[in-house]
Amino acid sequence: MTKPDATQATQSVDDGSLERTSGSGRMEVNRHLMFDHLVLPEEGSPRECFEAVSRALRDRLARRWMHTQRTQDRENPKRVYYLSMEFLIGRTLTNNMINLGLDSTLHDGHLHLEHLAWQDIVEAEPDAGLGNGGLGRLAACFIESLATLQIPSMGYGLRYEYGIFRQSIENGFQIEQPDHWLRNPDPWEIARPRETAMVSVGCQFEWHDGKLRAVPGGCTHLLGVPYDRPVVGYGGQTINTLRLWGVGTPDYFDFGEFSSGDFVGAIVDRVVAESITRVLYPDDSTRAGQALRFVQEYFLVTCSLADILHRFRHSNEDWEQLPEKVAIQLNDTHPAMAVAELMRVLVDEANLGWKKAWELTVGTLAYTNHTLLPEALEKWPVQFFKMVCPRLLEITLEINRRFLAEVETRFPNDPVRLSRMSLIEDAGEQHIRMANLAIVGTHSTNGVAQIHSDLLRTRVVSDFAEMFPHRFNNKTNGVTPRRWLLSANPDLASLITESIGDAWIVDLSELRRLAPLAEDTAFRQDFLQTKQNAKQRFCTWLETTTGQQVNPTSIFDCQVKRIHEYKRQLLNILHVVVLYQRLRENPSATFPPRTFFFAGKAAPAYRLAKRIIKLINNVGQVINNDPVSAGRLQVVFLPNYNVSLAERLIPASDVSEQISTAGYEASGTSNMKFMMNGALTIGTRDGATIEMAQEAGEENFFLFGLTAEQVAESRPWYSPRWHYDNELETRAALDLIFSGHFNRDEPGIFEPIRETLLEQGDFYMHLADLSSYAATHQRLGEIYTDKDAWARAAILNVAHSGKFSSDRTIAEYASEIWNAVPCPIAHELKEGANDVKAQD
């Protein structure tokens, strides 16, 4: 697939005069301050100035955005539509300026206001609360790469008023607070009320005993109101769209009800509507929370498909052309209802026969699986379908009937197989298995790392792989180098560009040209200096914002990801206690000082994960203040982990912790960001870490522990008690934790962790890997003291990180799943740019 040239891309932006007309740019910012906020430029607050700068920049890119849309409409290429419940896009201003080639503006003062530093303006932008973890960040990287590769595409998600939650730590405990990221107007979004979609919910709602209750029968109509955000490809040649659906109600208000005193009854539909997109991931530990999540998914799918098919019909009269003009990617099972909804439209509205409708549905839809955890494969109660979307239930049951007849033909007299493969789970309350629906109703099912795809095919859904072997494939994840290296780590990015040129920005495989420089003494020194600069910047920021002080010369050892047992933050903190115990027993023991950074959120209903956060913080409180370990070991839990924090921490990191139980991590993407920024990985042979080690050489990684095969084989006989009884350091660490040493005033608080590890089988095998993990960390510390050896390995990691660009991943999706090609619009930019200049 053709990649844009980095230099030409920047030049094309210069043609648009976005940078050269700095005086005009300043005037536009001042105009927005005065007319939007009614303040003088020299009196604008950081937030007001952020909005003014963003709106001025959006004004400038609007013509290019329109050019992209009109060119794609005229050329009528195949378009890619990416459906995801999450888009963890982070902040937008700086990223858009860099992708438009305006990064010099950040330094030369073109858009600065004299009374504020540029960083004050940047910090006034909140992280968009549209995602939680790797799934959403992957979606954000993917839509940026789609625009950079000039592939016609749109992302579809929900416009959550609140993010998942804002995390704070009080007395070591996670506290969840509202994340009202849309408290202020978002200057990047544009409401499109003329393109509103109608969604029918197959029940009505009423207030009963002070609670909102669904009532079977009738129908409630909701409106999906689209809000569009620009997705700027590097160089600004293509600006695609991320469309987020907000929810509203038809303009109906029962004045008589309200006047008679029934205030709630008059506005009940509006209350229902506002609840749907209020928060990302409602608490699914309750039936009400599960129902809300189900309605969110239904709302996303219905609105998005209505919009997609409207766009298709605008340029194409023949439904037969649907798979040739439309590719819809389902990001995990959350949008899997698209299978039934597309069938509904084709059968009920387009009046196609079932066979033809099914052929078009399967040919249009593709599915990405993101988990090997059976409990994470969504299953929805049949009752939810009956209540909310009964027609989709009828269609799903018919899909299942026809599919099982096909299975029976292929594998006769095998009722157990039929039960496993059925879309309906009959044990107890009936559920619809959404992963089964997604596999049956699409032409492609891909995993996101080679080991994940292999295990998915051979273990998790092996029956389906046997039935549809041609549908299964792998697409190893990637991350965008524009945000995660060019923007996040300007010192390292500059060093790379000075050494090999800037082609790496759009072709990350160019980083291989750094490999010979690993043997260059001067380059190693410069490389280490960029790392030290990043560490010092992080320390300064941390002290300024939180008051915490850390040693910038210590090893920065980082584990930043969602808190979950299989990701094994617990293994990490157990090892920290092992190191602490060594110092208690031998205070003269020598090893390089280490700072262990943890960050990540635990789901509000995940009690054990929240208890692990408490343990990390309590251990840190003791170790950081014990004279025997102070200055040598430090534990820091960074609250409210988000994209902006990652952009600060990852460039400063020396060690990346990727220590999931082998066979449980689908891919990981933080591991790629760390590698790209010169951190060395200590990890299990799991997810994409395996492929990273293959690229850079295992001698430049710190791999340890059981393999996925060994984990599976040892299940029948694994005994955590054996490790406690036979490994002295394991027993000493556990005894110290459960003696109350870290919770003297909170007796018994870590009992659930003790039970998990020693009484309930240690399912994720923390104790099985602890000794191997500690020994590998010992080797890591020894190599760190040899700066040349460490720098050489880190440079080789950067040099071999090119495979893990989201550009490569998207190019593979485009050629192997979507059959989509670029639709260049650069030839029209000059005319449009001159128009912009004339306006200036």
Automatic annotation (TrEMBL):
Biased amino acid composition, Polar residues: 1-24
Please give the residue ranges the record annotates as the region Disordered.
1-25
Keyword vocabulary terms for this entry = Carbohydrate metabolism, Glycosyltransferase, Pyridoxal phosphate, Transferase
Q: Name one Pfam family in it.
A: Phosphorylase
| Required cofactor names | pyridoxal 5'-phosphate
Q: Does the keyword Glycosyltransferase apply?
A: yes
Reactions this protein catalyses: [(1->4)-alpha-D-glucosyl](n) + phosphate = [(1->4)-alpha-D-glucosyl](n-1) + alpha-D-glucose 1-phosphate
Query: What job does this protein perform?
Result: Phosphorylase is an important allosteric enzyme in carbohydrate metabolism. Enzymes from different sources differ in their regulatory mechanisms and in their natural substrates. However, all known phosphorylases share catalytic and structural properties.
PANTHER family for this protein:
GLYCOGEN PHOSPHORYLASE, GLYCOGEN PHOSPHORYLASE, LIVER FORM
Name under which the protein is recorded: Alpha-1,4 glucan phosphorylase
Q: Which organism is it from?
A: Rhodopirellula halodulae
